[in-house]
Write a structure and sequence with these properties.
Layout (H helix, E strand, L loop, with lengths): L2 E2 H7 L5 H9 L3 E3 L2 E2 L6 E2 L6 E3 L2 E2 L8 E6 L28 E2 L7 E8 L2 H8 L7 E8 L4 H9 L2 E2 L2 E2 L4 E7 L3 E8 L6 H8 L4 E9 L2 E2 L8 E3 L2 H8 L2
Parallel strand pairs: 9-15
Antiparallel strand pairs: 1-4, 2-3, 2-5, 5-6, 7-9, 7-17, 8-9, 10-14, 10-15, 11-12, 13-14, 15-16
Helix pairs in contact: 1-2
Bound molecules: uracil.
Length: 237
C-alpha cells in the first residue's frame, strides 16, 4: 500500500513526521536508489527500497501478546523438524514471529503465553520476579496430609530442594485426587516430578493461571490477545 514518505519514516521510528520532512528536504532519503526531496511523494514500502542515510528503513515488528489454551498433543515449540503438531499450528493468522514464554509438556494443557517481546518474556521467566504458576493436577491415589505438607514445604528434587508451594485439595475420588498447586519455579516437568516423588503420579495436568492472569473460559486450542491490564495481572501476587 502506498503511503506518504514522511509518514513511512515516522512509522519506522526514524523521526517525527515533521522532522522526517526536513530529512527528505535535506536529501537524506532515497527511494529505489534515487534521492527524493519532493514533499508528499507516495511510496509503497513493501515493494520499494527506502533508505535513510544510506541504511534501509525497516519497521519494528508490532508487539503481540497472546494467551493460548494449549491442548495436549501439541509441542510447545514454533518449529519441529519431525513435523509433529506444534502450538503455532493453532495460530495460523499470527504473522509476527512469536515464541512461547516457557513450556508445557506434550501431555500438559492450559495457559501458555506467546509473544515477540523478548524483554517481557525474560522478565516473566526470571526467577527474581517469582511469577506464580497455578496448576490443577489430577493425581493417582490419595496423598496423605503428611505428603501434601512435605510438597508444600519443599522436597528434594534432582539434588535441589523445591521452593515452598501452595497446595489445595479440590476433589477426592476413590482412586484419584484433584489438587491445585501454585509454584513460582519453572523446572522441567516440575509438577509431575514433585507428585511422582511422593508416590502419586500425575494423571492429568492443566496450567490454569500465570500470576493472576487466568485461563478462564478459553477452550483448548483457542487463544486471545492480551491487554496491558492482562499483562499486569501476570506479575500480580
Ligand atoms: N510441570 C510439569 O510437570 N509439566 C508442565 O508442563 C508444567 C509444569
Amino acid at each position: 500500500m502506498q503511503e506518504r514518505l514522511q509518514k513511512i519514516l515516522a512509522r519506522a521510528g526514524i523521526a517525527s513526521r515533521r522532522k522526517a520532512e526536513e530529512l527528505i528536504r535535506e536529501g537524506k532519503v532515497t527511494v529505489d536508489g534515487i534521492v527524493v526531496t519532493e514533499m508528499g511523494i507516495r511510496v509503497n514500502p513493501d515493494t520499494q527500497k527506502i533508505e535513510y542515510d544510506g541504511r534501509p528503513v525497516v519497521f519494528p515488528e508490532k508487539k503481540v501478546y497472546i494467551l493460548l489454551h494449549k491442548p495436549t498433543g501439541f509441542l510447545s515449540t514454533v518449529h519441529d523438524p519431525q513435523g509433529r503438531p506444534i502450538i503455532t499450528d493453532l495460530l495460523p493468522d499470527i504473522k509476527e514471529r512469536i515464541y512461547p514464554v516457557g513450556r508445557l509438556d506434550l501431555t500438559t494443557e492450559g495457559a501458555l503465553l506467546l509473544t515477540n517481546d523478548g524483554e517481557l518474556a525474560q522478565e516473566i521467566l526470571h526467577p527474581s520476579r517469582e511469577v506464580n504458576k497455578t496448576y490443577v493436577a489430577r493425581v493417582k491415589g490419595r496423598p496423605s496430609p503428611k505428603k501434601l505438607a512435605a510438597l508444600s514445604k519443599g522436597i528434594d528434587l534432582d539434588g535441589r530442594k523445591t521452593w515452598p508451594a501452595e497446595l489445595t485439595v479440590l476433589e477426592n475420588e476413590k482412586q484419584a485426587t484433584t489438587i491445585k498447586i501454585v509454584i513460582h519455579e519453572g523446572r522441567k516437568r516440575q509438577v509431575r516430578k514433585m507428585f511422582e516423588a511422593v508416590g502419586h503420579p500425575v494423571l492429568q495436568l492443566t496450567r490454569v493461571a500465570y500470576g493472576q492472569l487466568e485461563l478462564g473460559e478459553l477452550k483448548p486450542g483457542k487463544y486471545r490477545f492480551l491487554s496491558p491490564r492482562d499483562i499486569k495481572m501476570i506479575f500480580r501476587k
